[in-house]
Amino acid sequence: MAFKEGLRARKKTLWRLILLALGLLGLLLYGLPVVRHLEVLIPMGFCPSATMSQLGDNFTGVLHPWARPEVLTCTSWGAPIIWDGTFDPDVAQQAAGERNLTIGLTVFAVGRYLEKYLARFLETAEQHFMVGQRVLYYVFTERPTAMPRLALGPGRRLHVQRVVREQRWQDVSMARMSTLRAALAGRLGREAHFVLCMDVDQHFSGAFGPEALAESVAQLHAWHYHWPRRLLPFERDARSAAALAPGQGDFYYHATLGSVAALRRLTTHCARGLRQYCARGLEARWHDESHLNKFFWLHKPAKVLSPEFCWSPDIGPRAEIRRPRLLWARKEYALLRT
Ligand SMILES: CC(=O)N[C@H]1[C@@H](OP(=O)(O)OP(=O)(O)OC[C@H]2O[C@@H](n3ccc(=O)[nH]c3=O)[C@H](O)[C@@H]2O)O[C@H](CO)[C@H](O)[C@@H]1O
Ligand SMILES: [Mn+2]
């Protein structure tokens, strides 16, 4: 009798724990800030020491992944995940300087995004982005005459290219892939060696240097880097070119940079996927971002940037986010999106 009662009590506790876990998970998914902080308790995995000792690339030289034992510093295919403290910015600066590189930074400022974000994005880029290197800003807008005035440092140039304004914000976002593809096949591709493709609704807050560069690089999404793989918001509709089946997908990314050749491959792949999908009247869950994630599942990036390279202050401070380099602006969709 006592045995049976004990069993029942244990079952009850087990159910309570399951319900509690489900409840927490639900709250987490719906973005309750307090619960969000608990996600740091979900382990990111660890980098095997055999891999650690081999991490590095042309820009960072040898990396020091053991300097950040609390986070994941490499991928399963042996690419480094760059965190503050794992690289020497001076080594990267020197390696890039020796190659006499031109680094392109593309950004779209269409509609109200221009007045709202562009000036701060560019002003802070002048302070923090690739300081000491040759930089080519490439701004795409439908109103070149409304460009903010900006005094550029030596070796830094700005090119403005006119684009047609798409009606819906989703279309503006998605059109970026084919516009970038054309630009990479033209002047941007001829003049730059590496190109970074960024959203405009953010600003630089710390030194963002050549340590970020590599043949193909993916940026970890600040909101999802602790989540278990199967909960990541990939496109799951099998009809989509961006679809990832259960069990597929390594990390959830939201931005990219790389060599001109690598970005031409990426933008061609994504633009084709977006076109096919739109032709059928369907849209991927997170638009161009879904296609980007599919591309990186198929073609693994050579380097991954930790969320320190692009952080959302809405998440709040975190010990593992030591020095954020780029900060998302607060979303003001009602004001900006049509
Ligand atoms: C940081 C991040 O996760 N970014 C992704 C997320 O962006 P967001 O949800 O942050 O979307 P968003 O409104 O910032 O749009 C993406 C970008 O397109 C440009 N834009 C967009 C609309 C417009 O009317 N005018 C304009 O200039 C602008 O550069 C903007 O930053 O989702 C988008 C699609 O769902 C894209 O995949 C973004 O890469
Ligand atoms: Mn954005």
UniProtKB/TrEMBL annotation:
<keyword id="KW-1133">Transmembrane helix</keyword>
<keyword id="KW-0472">Membrane</keyword>
<keyword id="KW-0328">Glycosyltransferase</keyword>
<feature type="binding site">
    <location>
        <position position="289"/>
    </location>
    <ligand>
        <name>an alpha-L-fucosyl-(1-&gt;2)-beta-D-galactosyl derivative</name>
    </ligand>
</feature>
<protein>
    <submittedName>
        <fullName>Alpha 1,3-galactosyltransferase 2</fullName>
    </submittedName>
</protein>
<keyword id="KW-0479">Metal-binding</keyword>
<dbReference type="GO" id="GO:0046872">
    <property type="term" value="F:metal ion binding"/>
</dbReference>
<feature type="binding site">
    <location>
        <position position="113"/>
    </location>
    <ligand>
        <name>UDP-N-acetyl-alpha-D-galactosamine</name>
    </ligand>
</feature>
<keyword id="KW-0812">Transmembrane</keyword>
<dbReference type="GO" id="GO:0005975">
    <property type="term" value="P:carbohydrate metabolic process"/>
</dbReference>
<comment type="similarity">
    <text>Belongs to the glycosyltransferase 6 family.</text>
</comment>
<dbReference type="GO" id="GO:0016020">
    <property type="term" value="C:membrane"/>
</dbReference>
<feature type="binding site">
    <location>
        <position position="221"/>
    </location>
    <ligand>
        <name>an alpha-L-fucosyl-(1-&gt;2)-beta-D-galactosyl derivative</name>
    </ligand>
</feature>
<feature type="active site" description="Nucleophile">
    <location>
        <position position="289"/>
    </location>
</feature>
<dbReference type="GO" id="GO:0001962">
    <property type="term" value="F:alpha-1,3-galactosyltransferase activity"/>
</dbReference>
<dbReference type="GO" id="GO:0006688">
    <property type="term" value="P:glycosphingolipid biosynthetic process"/>
</dbReference>
<dbReference type="Pfam" id="PF03414">
    <property type="entry name" value="Glyco_transf_6"/>
</dbReference>
<dbReference type="InterPro" id="IPR005076">
    <property type="entry name" value="Glyco_trans_6"/>
</dbReference>
<keyword id="KW-0735">Signal-anchor</keyword>
<keyword id="KW-0808">Transferase</keyword>
<feature type="binding site">
    <location>
        <begin position="199"/>
        <end position="201"/>
    </location>
    <ligand>
        <name>UDP-N-acetyl-alpha-D-galactosamine</name>
    </ligand>
</feature>
<feature type="binding site">
    <location>
        <position position="201"/>
    </location>
    <ligand>
        <name>Mn(2+)</name>
    </ligand>
</feature>
<dbReference type="GO" id="GO:0031982">
    <property type="term" value="C:vesicle"/>
</dbReference>
<dbReference type="InterPro" id="IPR029044">
    <property type="entry name" value="Nucleotide-diphossugar_trans"/>
</dbReference>
<feature type="binding site">
    <location>
        <begin position="108"/>
        <end position="110"/>
    </location>
    <ligand>
        <name>UDP-N-acetyl-alpha-D-galactosamine</name>
    </ligand>
</feature>
<keyword id="KW-0464">Manganese</keyword>
<feature type="binding site">
    <location>
        <position position="199"/>
    </location>
    <ligand>
        <name>Mn(2+)</name>
    </ligand>
</feature>
<dbReference type="GO" id="GO:0005794">
    <property type="term" value="C:Golgi apparatus"/>
</dbReference>
